[in-house]
Amino acid sequence: MQCDQPSPENGIFLGHYTAAVPRSTLFSRLLSQMSRRGWIAIAVALAVNLTVVSIGLALDARRGTDSSAASRIGGARVSPPQGSASKRAAGTTTTTQPDPIALPPAPPRTPVILPTSSSGAPLISRVPTTDRVVFVTIDDGVVRDPAVIDTVRRMKIPVTVFPVRDFARQGQAYFQQFVDLGGLVEAHSIKHSNLTKLSAKAQQAEICGPLADLQTMFGRRPLLFRPPFGAYNSATLSIAASCGYRYVVNWTAAANDGRIDWQAGKMQAGDIVLFHFRTDLVQNLLLLDSICKQQGFTVARLEDYLLAT
Ligand SMILES: [Zn+2]
């Protein structure tokens, strides 16, 4: 039961208590014999009490602002969400609460040895690192929930988005916001077909087709390709390399419906986590945030590890 909610048990108890006290007790006799001056004194005391309580509540309401501002200024616990500093500087009374989900920044990247291949783009499902970092990748783009942008901003994490080409077109401004927050847009085909069921020519269109459009939209030519459903064959890898992708990227963990399934049974350094632009995305990101904090991990940018050399 919530402490700040009326308790039915309390009400019943008080009722019984009142009814159980006989009027002939010493207490009730004292009450009835109390002087007029005594009643006035009690009334004054109650009024003073109410005033003190009211002032206390008002201070508590303000404290949300003041303590959050203090923690931001001190910088020890949280740093301000973007935009709040300018609002404060402008002298507005915007009250930004301390950010409960800002993850610490990723540690300096330790160089990693990545696989190479002469027959195509290497497939990466986990980044071979001992840094306590994981990577957030978000696919498709049918649902474009503005709350996701806010969550990513508050978590202060870079994300790699893999929109299907037409969803990128429909939601260009939406996906650009991830770029503005330090993320990058990579490629995830045009029609979201299972590539293993396509001819080499049809695969070519699906894999290489989005590159020019994504470059026009987001000002950068993608260097990572994620195959729809994670399905690929040798032709996928060789075609990906032929049109300039550095890696084909799958995953070692998948987030769905407020649950994350880790391939190794638990979070491991270098895990690439698959999310989707769906209605459960905020919930899934918050779950990752919570697990990272519990286990001392943070989120790093995938491209910082895969494309550093
Ligand atoms: Zn997909």
Descriptive notes:
By secondary structure, the protein is of the alpha/beta class. The protein folds into two domains: 82 residues, no CATH class; 184 residues, Glycoside hydrolase/deacetylase (TIM Barrel, Alpha-Beta Barrel), CATH 3.20.20.370. The chain is 45% helix and 12% strand. The chain contains twelve helices and ten strands. The strands form two sheets. Strands 2, 3, 4, 7, 8, 9 and 10 form a seven-stranded mixed sheet that branches. Strand 2, helix 5 and strand 3 form a beta-alpha-beta unit. Helix 5 packs parallel to helix 11 and helix 8 crosses helix 10. The radius of gyration is 30 Å and the shape is globular. The N terminus is likely disordered.
Explain the layout of strands and helices:
Elements: H1 8-20, H2 26-33, H3 36-74, H4 84-89, E1 123-124, E2 133-140, H5 146-155, E3 160-163, H6 165-170, H7 172-180, E4 184-185, H8 200-208, H9 210-218, E5 224-225, H10 234-242, E6 247-249, E7 253-256, E8 259-262, E9 272-276, H11 281-295, E10 298-300, H12 302-306
Helix pairs in contact: 5-11, 8-10
Zinc ion (ZN) is lined by residues 139-140, 188, 192, 228.
- Weakly predicted, low-confidence segments: 1-31, 48-94
Q: Helix share of residues?
A: 40-55%
Count of extended strands:
10
Question: What best-fitting shape do the alpha-carbon axes yield?
Answer: globular
Supply Rg: 30 Å
Mind describing the biggest β-sheet? Answer: 7 strands, mixed
What is the level-2 CATH architecture name of the largest domain?
Alpha-Beta Barrel
Query: Given this structure, which CATH class of the largest domain is correct?
Result: Alpha Beta
* CATH superfamily annotation of the largest domain: Glycoside hydrolase/deacetylase
Present as ligands are: zinc ion
Task: Please state the structural category.
Answer: alpha/beta
- CATH topology (level 3) name of the largest domain: TIM Barrel
Give the N-to-C terminal Cα separation: 57 Å
Total of helices: 12
Count of all domains: 2
- Mean pLDDT, nearest integer? 78
